[in-house]
């Protein structure tokens, strides 16, 4: 969204105390994440698989996995991810362990 920075600033100005941006992270840059950090914005990401090939196939965008992971790492480094990970699937057994290892590797 081309006006996201202004939207965040407007939300803060009118008194929102919790702002969360849901994104695929592919277009996040340092200046935008700095703005998020300065304004206490939490960022949530869409990650469709732990393998780049599968993620890129689902999104129909080559390289989207690497861009999403770069965005996650940038947001983590700036303190914009506030200690929770949620998923839309219910991993069990070995898959659950693999997902925990995958998300743990991003830190």
Architecture overview:
Strands 1-2 form a two-stranded parallel sheet. It contains five helices and two strands. The protein is mainly alpha-helical.
Question: What order do the SSEs take from the amino end to the carboxyl end, as H and E?
Answer: HEHEHHH
Number of strands: 2
Largest sheet, strands/sense/barrel: 2 strands, parallel
Mean pLDDT: 87
Cα distance, first to last residue?
Answer: 27 Å
Shape: globular
Please state the structural category: mainly alpha
Give the low-pLDDT segments: none
Helix content: 40-55%
What is the CA-based Rg, rounded? 15 Å
Strand order of the largest sheet: 1-2
How many helices in DSSP terms? 5
How much of the sequence lies in strands comes to 5-15%
Give descriptors for this structure.
mainly alpha; two-stranded parallel sheet; 50% helix; 107 residues
Secondary-structure topology with pairs:
Layout: H1 4-13, E1 20-23, H2 30-38, E2 42-45, H3 52-59, H4 64-77, H5 93-104
Parallel strand pairs: 1-2
Produce a short descriptive summary.
The chain has 107 residues and is mainly alpha-helical.
């Amino acid at each position: 969204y081309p006006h996201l920075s202004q939207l965040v600033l407007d939300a803060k100005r009118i008194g929102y105390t919790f702002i969360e941006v849901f994104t695929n992270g592919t277009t996040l840059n340092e200046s935008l994440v700095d703005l998020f950090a300065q304004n206490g914005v939490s960022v949530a990401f869409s990650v469709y698989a732990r393998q780049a090939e599968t993620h890129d196939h689902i999104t129909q965008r080559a390289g989207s996995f690497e861009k999403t992971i770069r965005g996650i790492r940038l947001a983590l480094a700036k303190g914009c991810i506030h200690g929770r990970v949620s998923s839309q699937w219910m991993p069990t057994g070995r898959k659950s362990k693999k997902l925990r290892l995958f998300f743990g590797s991003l830190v």
